[in-house]
Records
---
Amino acid sequence: MSLEDVIPTAMPLAALYRRVRDYVPAVEWPVHAGDIEAILRLKAERNAVVLAHNYQTPEIFHTVADIVGDSLALAREAVSTAADVILLAGVHFMAETAKLLNPDKVVLIADTRAGCSLAESITGADVRLLRERYPGVPVVTYVNSSAEVKAESDICCTSANAQKVVESLGVPKVIMLPDEYLAQNVAKRTAVEIIAWKGHCEVHERFTPNDIAELRNSYPGVTVLAHPECPPAVVAVADFTGSTAGMIDYVGKNKPARVALITECSMSDNVAIAHPELEFVRPCNLCPHMKRTTLPKIRRALETMTHEVTVPAPLAARARAAVERMLALT
C-alpha cells in the first residue's frame, strides 16, 4: 500500500498494534490503545477524518489517520473528502489550507501552538512591501505560510512542484517565499531569476554537509535523500532531493538497501514500517511543532470539537485563489 493511500483504521486494535510494534514499545501500547479506540469511535460519530502529515509519529500516522501525505497530498485530499469534520494532524498553516479549500466544513487542530518557523518568518505586510520594491514581479508562496501571506500572493507551491509553478508563470523573474533554501535550490534548476526571502525551516536548516560526510563514513553505501528545505550545500552532496512524497516514491521504486532521509525524525519511522526489508539510518532533527500533536489531544479535539480553525471570508477568498491556481497545475 502506498503511504498516500487511505489508512485502513477499521481493524481490531491488535492488528493496528502489529503495524507499529517495532516503534511503539509493548508497555506503552495500553496507554495509546484507549485513545485510539475512542478516536475511531468519535470519527464515526462526527463523520470526521484525520489528515496526517508524514512527520506525525507512527502511533498517529499508522493507527488513526485516514489520509496521509505531504502538504500537496493533504491539500488535494482536503478538497475531495466527504466528511463533515477534518482534523488536521500537523501544523496550523496546514489546517488553514484545509479550511480554505473546505469553507463549509469544520476544520480542527489538536494544539493551537503547533506553528511553523517558516510561516512565522513573514507577514502579509512584508509581502506588500516586496511588491512595492519589485513592481510587476509575481509572488510564488510556499504553502508553509499563513493564509494572510497566501492572500497577498499570486500562486502557491509546495516543495514537490515549486519549479513547475515558477516556470508556469512564463516570466523572467519571480519573488519566492518564505523559504530561502527552497528558493535557492529551485534557482539552480531553472533559468527564472528568483528573489528569495530569508525564512528557514528550523528542522532542515540544522543539517550540514559534514553530517552527510559522517553518515557516509559510518554507513558505507548509504543512499542519502534530502528535503529541498535543506541548505543548498546539503542538497549538493545528497543522492536525491525531493519532497517527503518524493522520498517515499524513491524508496519504493529504488529499494536502496541502506538509506538516510535528511528530514524530520518521524519520517523514517513511517516509511520504514512500509519497507521493513530496508535499513534506515536516522540522522534526527525533531520538529517541536509537529510533536505537539498527540493521540490524547486528537481525542480531546474530537470530543469537544476544538480547536476550530477559521479564516475571515475576504482574506480566505484571496488566499484560496492562490492555492487553487497551484492545484490547477498539478
---
Amino acid sequence: MSENPKKLNLKQRYKLLTRGLDWETTYQPMDKVFPFDTFEGIKIHDWDGWEDPFRLTMDAYWKYQAEKERKLYAVIDSFAQNNGHMGITDARYVNAIKILLTGVTSLEYAAHRGFSHVGRHLRGVGPRVACQMQAIDELRHAQTQIHTLSHYNRYFDGFHDWRHMYDRVWYLSVPKSFFDDAMTAGPFEFVTAISFSFEYVLTNLLFVPFMSGAAYNGDMATVTFGFSAQSDEARHMTLGLEVIKFMLEQDEANVPIVQRWIDKWFWRGYRLLSLVAMMMDYMLPKRVMSWAEAWEMYYEDAGAALFEDLERYGLRPPKYADIATKEKNRLSHEVWSIFYNYTHAAAFHTWSPEDNELDWLSEKYPDTFDKMYRPRFDYWREQAAAGNRFYNQALPQLCTTCQIPMGFTEPDDPTKICFRESVFKHERYHFCSDGCKDIFDWEPEKYVQSWLPVHEIFKGNCGGTDLKDVLKWYHLNDGVDNMDYEGSPDQRLWAEWTANRSKAAE
C-alpha cells in the first residue's frame, strides 16, 4: 500500500495554484504577446522571483470576501431600516461623503480597469495573478461604496448623477486626471503609481480620515464599508511594496526609473489628497485630527521609516516631500478657500466655520491660522450675514498637471501665490508648484493633451459659456445641489427633522 501523500503547506499550495499556469508562446514571440512590459526600460530576469506574502488563492478569496459582504450588507440594511441618516451629527457632514462618492468611488472603478489591463500585460504569472486579484477588489469597493452611500441619495441632494459628473465637473477633473495619467502609463509605472505611491505611501491619509470621520459623526454604514475594505487595502499595500522590491532586486538599472516614478506619483497623489485635507479640517462637525497631525503621523513618521528601509536599494525619499511638509499648516485652509469661492459651481455646499470651529483651527494651527486665515473667514462671515455671501464669478487659472485652481502659495512665503510656467512648442503652460512643473517637463507631449475644464468652458465645449448652461451640462441642480449650506434644502430638511425630534422628546 502506498503512503498517503504529505499534506501541502500554504506556500506549496499557493505555488501550485498560481504557477505553471503560463507557457512560452510558439507561433507568436513572447514580446508580441506582451509588448508593454519592456518599453519602459524595466529589466526583469526572473519572473518567478515574485513573491506574494499573503498567498491568497481564489477559493480562499471568495470565501473570505463573501463573509465580509454578508456582514457589510447586514449593517447597510440595518442603517436604512433604522433611519441611520438621522443619527449623524449634522447634515453638513453629508457634504464630506458627497466628495467620497463623486471623487473616490469612480477612482475605485478606474483602478479595477487599470489592474485588469496590467494583469493582462505582465508576462510573469505571479504579478499577473496579484493584479487580477486587486482588480476584483477594486470593483467590489466601487460597488459597496455605491450601495453604502445610496441611502443618503434618498434624502440629500448632490448624489443623484455622480457618474455623469465625474467626467465633466471641474473639481472632479483632479481625481479623474490622476487616474487617466496612471492608466495611460506603462504597466510598471501604473503599479508604482497606484500600488506603491498611493496605496502604500499615501492610502492611510485617504481612508483613515474618511472612515474615522464617519465614526465620529455617527455614519456607521460608511464606517462598516471602511472596515470591509481595509483588509483588502492591507493586501494592496503589500503588493505595492513587493512590486517595488521586485523591480529593484531584478536589475540595478531599474533604480533611477523607479525613483523618477516615485517622485512623480508622490506629488500627484499628494495634490489629490488636498481634497482630504479640506474635508478633515472643515467638513466634519466632529473632527478626529487635523490634516497637519495626520501628515505627521502617516507620512513624516511612517514614510520616514519606509524610505529608511528602501535606502539599501538605492532609493531616496520622494522629491518635494519636504515641500509637502512645509505646506501641512496651510494646505487645508487654501483649498477650503478655493471651494468657498466656487461652491456655486460644485455639487456640495460650503459654509462659514462657526466660532468653536475657528477656535479649534487656531489651536491646531497656532503659527498660521490666526495670522493669515482667520481674518479672511471672519470677513466672509460678516459679508454673508449682511446678505453679501461671496461667490467668485471669474473662472480660475488651472494647473496643467494636477488641474487644481492656482490657489497654493510659495513654499517659503504663504502670502504669495505659487506660479510656475513652461514653454513647449511655442505654447505657454502654467503650474501650481515646482512638482507639477517637473512632471510636465519630463513628458510634455502627454500633458499638453490635458482636458482643462476652464479652457473647455471658454471654448464653449461645456454646454455654453453662461454659468447656468454649464451647470445644466454638469447635471447639477442650480440652487439645490450647490451654493452655501445655510438656506439650502439640505439645511432646511435637517432643521425640520431636528425640530420634530425635539418636540417628540418633550
---
Amino acid sequence: MEYKYQNSVDDFRVKYTLVIPDDAEAKNPLTEKEQKFLDDLNDAYDEIENLTNQADGYDYALAVSSGIIAGLIDSFWVGEWDFRKAKGKASEEIAKKIVAYAKKHSGYAKWCDGVDKTGKWIKRKPDSHISAVEFLEELYVLPGDTGWNFAGSGVSPTSHRLDDFCHHPTLVGMISCIIVQFTGTAKYHPSSGEIITLPVTVNKYGNFVSDKAFGKVFAGIINWFFNVAKTLKNRKGHLISDMAGSISSVKVGNDGAGIPGTVMSTLKELSALPCFQDTAFAENLRKAFQNGIGSGKSQLDLGVFNNLFDGASSKFDMRTELAIKKELKRQAIPVVINEIVVRAFFFIRRFIEQMRVKRSLMEIEWKRLLPVNNRTIVRMMTVASGTFCAVDIGDAAIRAGIESCGNVAAFGGKFILRVNFVGIGRFTIAVGADLYMAARKGRMELAIASGEVANTALLEKKIIQEVAEINDNTDTKIEKMKAATADVSNLKF
C-alpha cells in the first residue's frame, strides 16, 4: 500500500511516498475512517499534480513556434474578412436547398407545368428557386401570415417574421405553431413591448382538424414541418420557402426579409420575457433584422464593426447568419491547426519519454500522455493562442496602417477586417481555463494543509507499526541465531 505525503519547510515543498508491505498492512489495519481519510488525500494529491503546470522550455518553445506559424497562415492564406463573398455563397446555398426540398414533393413537377391562380397555363422552371419559393409558400401557409396586414397593428410585412415566433426555426417556434391551433389567434411581439393578439385565417393544412388535443398538436407541427413522417430530417415547409424572403421580393430580385436565424430568434424570444424585457434592445433587434447593420437611416449602428457587413445586404436574417458562420469557419482553420500541432507535440514527446523509461507499451501510463484536462497542456495552449493573437493583431495593424495611409478613421475599419475573432475567442477560453485551474489548485492545497496534522499522525502510526513489525522479526531472528550458536558449541568432533 502506498500513501502520498508532502510538506513545506521554508517554502521548499517535499513530496514523498510511504510504502507499506501488504503483510504489515494486514496485521496493523487502519480504521475505516482513517483509511477513507488517507484515500481522499491520495486522490487530492493526484489532482493537485494534474493541476500543476509542468511545462518546460521545450514545451514553451513549441507553443510559441506553433502560434507564429498559425499566425502566418492566417495572414497569407485566410486573409481579410469578406462578407460580400460569404453572403453570395450563403444565398446560393439557401436557394439550392429550397429547390431541393420543393422537388421532394410529389406535386412539384406537375405544379411547374400547370396553371396559375387565374387559370392560365404557365410553364415554370423547376430548377429555379423562384418557382420553389412560390410553390412552398402557396402549399404551406403559416396561420400568422395573414395577420400582419392589420392597419395600426404595429407589425409590418418586413418585420412579421421576427415578431411572430411561428416563423422562428427554434423549438419555441414549433411550440408557437401548436399554440395557434388551440387559441385561433396569432401573437406578435413587436419592439414596442406590447403583445398584439390578432385572429388568423388558416388554410386547409392549419384547420383545427380534431376536437382532441392530439389533432391540434398534429396540425401545428405539420404547418411547421415539411413532412411530418420525416420530422427528424428537419424538412420545414414554410420556413424553407421563407429563407429567401417572400415570393413578391424574390420575383423582382430584391433581398426581402427572410426568416430570422437561430441567433436572432433566440435573442428576440429572450427580449420578450418579462425578466429580460428591454424596449431599446428589442428595437435594435428590429433595426438589424428589418434594415440591416450600418450607419444608414433606421439601421443598427455598430461603429467600426459596420465594416464587417459592407458589400452586401446586411439584414440580419438567416442568410446573414449563415454568411457570418462561413467566415468564422474560414478563420477557424489556423486556430485548429495551432490546436492540433500543440496537442500532438505534447502527446508524442511524453510518449517517447515514457518509452525510454518503461521500455514496454503495457507499462505506459496512458492517462499522463493524453493532451487534455491537465494544467500543462492548458498553459501550452494559452501561450500558443496568445502568440497567434499577437501575430494576427500585429499583422492587422501593419496592413491597416499601410492601406489607410495615416487616415485614423479609415485605420479602424481596415484593422477590424483583419482581426481573427475565432483566435481571440480561443485565447480567452485558454486564459480562463488556466486561471480556473490555478484557483482550484490553491483551494485544494489549502484544504490539504488543514488536514496535514492528522495526516502526519496517521503516517506516524503506520511507521511505528512497521518499525514494531521489523523489531519483532529481528528479535525472533536473534533468538534463532542464539539457539543455533548454542547447538554448534555443543557439537563434539
---
Amino acid sequence: MLRLVYFPSPGRAEAIRVALSLSGSEWEDSTIDGERFQAMKEGGELPWGMVPVLQTPDGTIAESSAILRFVGRLAGLVPEDPYQCAKADEFIDGMEPLSKSLDSTFRIASVDERIRLRKEVFGPSGKGTRNLIRLEGKVTESETGWAAGTDEMSIADLKLFTGLFGLFSGNYDGIDASVISEYPGLIAYHGKVSTEPRIKSHYADVKAEDIRWTFLPGAFEGQ
C-alpha cells in the first residue's frame, strides 16, 4: 500500500495522484489540513518539513518531483531510453521557476495586495509571463507534441499539465483563465493531454464547478 499525504487541493501533488491512478497500484490519497500538517512537521514525519510525501513499505519519500519519478516508473511513464528519460527529467527541473513564481505572494495577508502582486507576476514583464513564453516555445518545438519531445506521454507531461493549468482554476486570487488565452501553443497542448484516453478517463467524473475543471477537455476554449 502506498499512501500519498497532501492537502485536498491539486497543487504539487496532482501529477503524482494521476500517475498513481494510472499505475494500477493500491494507494491511498490521504488529505490533511493545516493543523495536521503542523503536527506531522513537529512530529518528524516529514523528511524535509514539507508535503507532499509518499509513505511506502520501505519508508517515506519526500519532494514532489522525486515522488513523481518513483510512481511514474510504476505507471510506465518514465521513458526507458536514457536520453528521453533525461529530457523528461530536464523538463521537470526546468519547470521549477514557474512552480515558485507565486511563492512570495502566499504570505501576503491583504487580498488587494496579493492580487496586485500576482497580476504583476503575469503582467507584461512578470516572471510568470516569461515562463509561459518559454514553456510555449518548448511544447511547440516538440516534434512529438509531448512536453519533453518523448515518443509517448511521460511524467514531464503530467507535471506540466497539472502544474501549469492548475494555476488558472480560480483558486489563486488575481489569476484567472483569461491569462492563458494569449498562448495558443499551450492551449493546443492542453487539448492533446486532456484528450489522451488515460487522462480523459481519470478526470471523467470531474464537474465544471470542481477545482479540477482546468484538466477537462475544452476547458480553455473561448478564453
